[in-house]
Amino acid sequence: MGLLEPALRVVPFSGRDTEMADLTTWAGGAETIRARLLTGLGGSGKSRIAVELSARLSRRRWRSVWLDPADEPGDVAEACRGPRVLVVVDDAASFPRLDHQLGAIRKADAGRVRVLLLARTGREWWTRLRWASPLWADPVTVPTSIVHIGPPALTPDRMVRNAVAAFAPRLGVPVPDLVVCDLPADADPPRFGDVHAAALAVLAERDEAEAEAVVDVARGPAALLDQERNRWEDTDAVVARALLCGDRRDLPDRLAELHVARTLQAAPGMTEVCTARITSAEAFEAAMFAFRLDVDTPAVTGAGRLTAALLERVIPQLSDDPAHLEGVLRLFPARPAPTGQASDVASRLVTALAADDGQDTTTLAEALGAWARALEETGRSDDALEPAERAEAMWRRITAADPLRYRVALWRAMRDLAVVSFGSGRDEQFEALVDETVSAWSSVPEAEAVWTDPELAWGLYSLELTTRPADVDAARWYHERAVAILRDLVAQDPVAYEETLARVQANLLLLVNRGRPAEALDGLRESVAIRRRLARDRPDAFERHLAYSLSNLSHALAALGAAAEALAAGQEALALRRRAVRKAAASGRGGAPRLRFELAWSLSGVGVLLSEQGRPHEALSLEEEALTIRRELAREAPDRYREMLATSCSNLGVTYSRLGRFGDALCLEQEAVGIRRELVRNFSAGRHRQHLARSLSNLGVRYSDMGRTEDAVEPTREAVSLMRQVVRDDRRQHLPDLATALANLGATLTDLSRAQEAVGPLHEAVGALRDLSRESPQKHLPGLASALTALAVALGEQRRYASAAAAAREAVRIRDRLAATDQRRFGDDLARSVRVLAGIEALLPQRGSRNGHYIAARSERV
Asked: Over 10-78, what HEC string results?
């Protein structure tokens, strides 16, 4: 097992020429101090690269210093004296005093110092160093960079053969003939640590009588660990507990994590057994171990869930020592998971620090910010507002005394407050904070980009959220700029930034709502793919986010007319959100408004899709449940949820109508119109006028369903008038709704024997729907067929039988194609169009005669 130790350099170093050339160049330069974070998953070769760099630089008379977590800052400063010093910090995230240790380097009498930090991810601890460590405190900024280790430039076969050739002499065995198993087609590239473990395992247990050795890289660490376990005197549980609590047993990290994961997964209750009666110091060690699992779970089915289970067990056993609480808290990512533990640690730290003196301190400001993020993530935006505001105000005061050192911390606090403001419905505060922060982040020197690019990407994403509906191109520019920055960040630290990229891509729903769903589809699919992979083994952390991406993808697919795929994505999102609510209820926070809002969103979305696909009976219970939830939310916070309540009233009204419950449908649409009229009076947002117009158009249809056709005219005319206003602002987004309102107005006037007035709106609706159908036929062909049928009836009423027959024939052709793909959904529509066409053709002039009868058909509404 010791042969895997990177410092021994048993296996010749190879496959990293690009990385070594880059690091060698980085070590040069005239600056006094340079710092670099090198990220990579466990076993990828970070430590070996640092060892090799140290060896190569030593030949150029550099001295290497490998820091230990227990090193005193003064000793660090003394160790760094000299003309050329390389400082290596392995597993930097676990150094509780890293900020002070790095700050001490400033006091060293050194020529050139290069600081190489190794970690699996940066996340919060790395960003925090910018203001927490005096290393970056003075006007001479330390050049700082991040780089990620990619797959090695060697094939698995070559890596195995190199390792076997190196290990065999050390073990005193001959080099065997090798057969290297192929990896699955969808497997990630192998890591050096896994390959070396597989080679060592085969050599250690090989029978010399065997002609060849079969090396299975996929189970290399597991095979080596199985051999090691046979030599242990203690049980698996005892060893796992020791590993959790700080006794590493000379196992490489990846093998230690694999053993803990397999042991805790082996039997229910094992997590509790291994964490029972541990001291507060051991609880701190176990929490740090859990975070390494969260970043880099070994290949054990379901092991990703261990992070939440371990933290749930050990965090209550942490003492209220601020150093321990702070050390654990700074490892939580920006969107903490599991959020319950983050909130608990942060609130305890705030209490402990406030009890000391209550003065402005960076630690207290950081704790307040972490508390606000955790509360916001659990859907408790209103509760998060107070700590977010306190954190932002405290950072403003701290930054005023030292702007260069603390401005990044202030901008992050402003970002956190903006997120909470957005979640709690304070749109004006959100927009003001976004404008201020983006302006600040855009003005910093290029040397600060390593710290500010993540914040700038978020700011651009937020600007996209705040653009006016008509400014689609501006929103698209903000989005593309944010994605470009995030792709660079993912290349540097995928663990920290992949989820952020997925979040920004999920925001492409804005393009869908603005009438450009085709442009959003690829980004939404990427968002789903990233989050599906992240959620596969860490459901507690990522399932809610996956549901969000799936829901938005469903909306985009529906806008393109891909009904079946849209329904599948929407139903998956609904299942995930039901599960989230159940889990929250089990933990005592099932009533969180955010979770109920998201559940209602999915219930409503799936209900609408089912109703539109001719399955109103299946849609009914879902839409009624959505309406119930939204009524409750609207009672609790009317300004935030009444718009969604109106949407549910309108959607359920349509479904009631399809089920023949016309009176219930009319009451709900009247309620929706009332809510939306009030929103238009109280707010100037164009979306309220658009939604009011939709409800008015629906109200006209509901009146017609009840036989009150005369009552339908006024709301339908008002709908057309409002839609003409919003179409002037953004034709592409609102043209479908205008076409619907025009078609409904024409049908209503036809039913009142006012066909002459009806033909104009119907012709306009048909023209608009023709244009829309060319771009998105699946979505708009059904509406075009309905409008053509209504136009045929109106033309027939005017005895313009030839034109009427042409419109009716086109409607039949369209519906015939649609019914061929979905008979249940479009079969009845086709039958109606056929009846209208038959009635018109029966009235066409024959042999010069002219029939004076009218068409006996009620007009059709979209």
From this structure: CCCCCCCHHHHHHHHHHHCCCCCEEEEEEECCCCCCHHHHHHHHHHHHHCCCCEEEECCCCCCHHHHHH
